[in-house]
Amino acid sequence: MKVRHLDLEGVVEFVPDKHSDERGYFSETYNKNHLAKLGLQLEFVQDNQSYSINKGVLRGLHYQVDPRAQDKLVRVLKGRIFDVAVDIRSGSPTFGKWVGIELSERRWNQLLIPKGFAHGFVTLEDHTVVAYKVSDFYSPQHDRAIRFDDPRIGITWPIEADSVTLSSKDRKAPLLVDAEVFQFEDSRGSEGTR
Fold first, then answer.
1. pLDDT, tens digit, for every residue of 149-169?
2. Which of 9, 17, 19, 22 is such that its CA lies 20 to 30 A from the CA of 171?
3. Are 29 and 110 in contact (CB under 8 A)?
4. Looking at 62, 63, 119, 142, which residue is catalytic?
5. Residue 25 annotated as catalytic
6. Structural domains counted in the chain
7. Is residue 190 part of a domain?
8. Could you tell me the residue range of the domain that residue 107 belongs to?
9. Against a cut of 0.85, is the pTM above it?
10. Tell me, what DSSP letter sits at residue 34?
């Protein structure tokens, strides 16, 4: 498995090994022990999958607040997306900063988005299927969103903002300044929601 740490601490790209022959391929897409060797003690409890009919479907920026915050491990089963993580830990040196990478069935890569980050993606192809693992169950009472086009965050989406398809929830999402966010503490402390 190839591992690449991105510019925001804790956000990691993984590319699992893929073994191909005349029959097709085999790949171990998740192994708890491999992540533990990297110092990541994660317990995933739920798998989610989304299907987007058209290019330009934008989902996000989503997260759950404490005590139901979620780590996410995202991959694309079919198609391509531009996947984004935003640091929403108030007091963090990278608060409000974002990273984005293309995830695709061809690249076979995955993105780990830890607790304390908002997550969103836009489809770059029609008929895109995205799957992701989460470390806590979905909780409507703890579910939150931030505007995908918040100028304070300034995400450079690879598609025009007026051509995206959004849910009504995402259309009404607040800006970062008005959102419920996490509180950052360095490695000597812990994080919480404020």
1. 999 999 999 999 889 999 999
2. 9
3. yes
4. 62
5. no
6. 1
7. no
8. 2-18+27-184
9. yes
10. H
